[in-house]
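The instructor's notes for this session suggest beginning with a concrete chain rather than abstract definitions. Hand out the sequence below and ask the class to guess, before any prediction is shown, which regions might be ordered.
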Amino acid sequence: MGLEYLVVCGTAVIVSGLTLFSGFGLGTVLMPVFALFFPIPLAVAATAVVHLANNLFKVFLVGRKADWQVVARFALPAALAALLGAFLLTAFEQSASLWSYSLGGRMHEVTLLKLIIGLLIIAFAFFELLPRFQTLSFDRRHLPLGGVLSGFFGGLSGHQGALRSAFLIKSGLTKEAFIGTGTVSAVIVDVVRLGVYGATFYTAKLGAVPKGLAGLLLAATLAAFLGAFLGVRLMKKVTLRTVQLIVGIMLIVIGVGMAAGLI
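After discussion, reveal the predicted structure:
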């Protein structure tokens, strides 16, 4: 599993540092990388493990700053919606192939799950790239709706960060409370969806967990910690448009490849 370690851990280091100023979340970029080597449900679950560990570390640092009233209004609906999203992920995995085709002498299969996740990767890449979406925000009264949307997509594909930020940014929170509240909310969603993923792998048998995955997850988690550590000390800018564009274009390419059955 040398190549998997190199690509996944290298991505985790870079992306974890970039999340501090590029706008993209760790899960948004890391999940497609896991999907290059593992089935999509396993890739989403593996990313959730790294995401949870990284956020638990952040909770230790900033969790005490969380606004618990906002957490209750946002994270509880998010947790319930994450259950639905996670169950749909496992249901889509068992759906039949939509179509197949030959390209370059190889057969490629388009499944409902690959099509949905690929389109979501593309959509959230544009969500992060287009200026009009970067300034998107919602009134505090819409927090429960934001929780439902963020939790649902978090459970289905791991894309929860962008929507979470859009709904929390106008909640009247200080910068510290915003970070703490978002981190605590992310942990709650991660715990719920991991419970569903774990139960599904054992009951529905979507695929045997590959040998050595635990070691890869540990290495990726430590790499994410290292990336965050380096990012805090080396990066001074809050945003870096060039990096954001490169990451966004790469995500769109991966999303198109996944939706087309090439990945």
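Then share the key points. The first helix runs from residue 2 to 18. Residues 100 and 109 are 4 Å apart (CA to CA).
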